[in-house]
Amino acid sequence: MKISDIKYLASFIIPVLIFVGLKYESFFSYSAVLFAFLVVPTLEPIFKSSTYNLNEEEKANKLTSHFFDLILFLNIPLIYISLYWLGVKISSCHLSSFETVGYVLSFGTFLGASGINVAHELGHKDHIFSKVSAVLLLIPSLYTHFIIEHNRGHHKNVATPKDPATARKNELLYTFWIRSIVGSYINAWKLEFKRLDKSNLPGWHFSNLMFLFLGIQFLYLFVLWLLFGFKTMIILITIAALSFVFLETINYVEHYGLMRKQLPSGRYERVMPKHSWNSNHYLGRIILYELTRHSDHHYLANKKYQVLDHHNESPQLPFGYPISMLVSLCPPLWFRIMNSKLESID
Question: Domain coordinates of the chain in residue numbers?
């Protein structure tokens, strides 16, 4: 590990701000969401975007370092400890509505960035411990089916009409949320039915992972109810919903309007770097574990985040992820900016 690799510890700024908010309450309950959607967008233009790719020796060194995996796994205790602390605070009934809203927004951002996003990285690893860790990170977001649909569905069907997580040109973000959330969940069931059918087992077999995940999530909610009561459980469910809306907004930004060509055989051309929007904005890269180099991730899905490359043929977002997400909330502005970029790469 090089000294320069310490930059990835910036991914813990949001978790640290979550704990600051829990400690000091009041305005500080908004710390994480304000950092993500106010401070980062303000600072990103100051930091120069980089298209630099590591050489083979540098990649080999990073792939043998345990540092990059360790900082991913550290998110598990951070998430569960902070959720427990929040549950205690809410159930004690001394929080104001202002503070409760702040915690909902901040924790929704936290679970999206440090929960689902990290689970996304770990879920692509072959080691069983990594996959179990991914599920643990997805439970608080009530999105455990993501590991099935994303790995076996989204990566296969991305940039085609078959993929619910690929936004069509001129599709509203708000209708996309519904289509992607519902479609991804249904697809996860279909993928498990298909997997079991290949083993000559019925879809309702106990080894169907969707049943396991459903049971885990109900158990999680039951524990929340036992520990903190119904009101707190509902607030934590709201946080979970916000976190996967956060994820789906990123999906919208990452794949908006980009489609693969259908070949005469009926199959689609291979997924290439040109089929996902890329962003080399520095802060977003290190805070989100290089998620913003999404083109290379789809090109080589099992490639670890610390060695993802920039591709010159990848379409580039005009802004970093936080600004892109905020702009997408205003469809006329989003269409005006992004449709012109789509036309320039067609």
Answer: 3-345
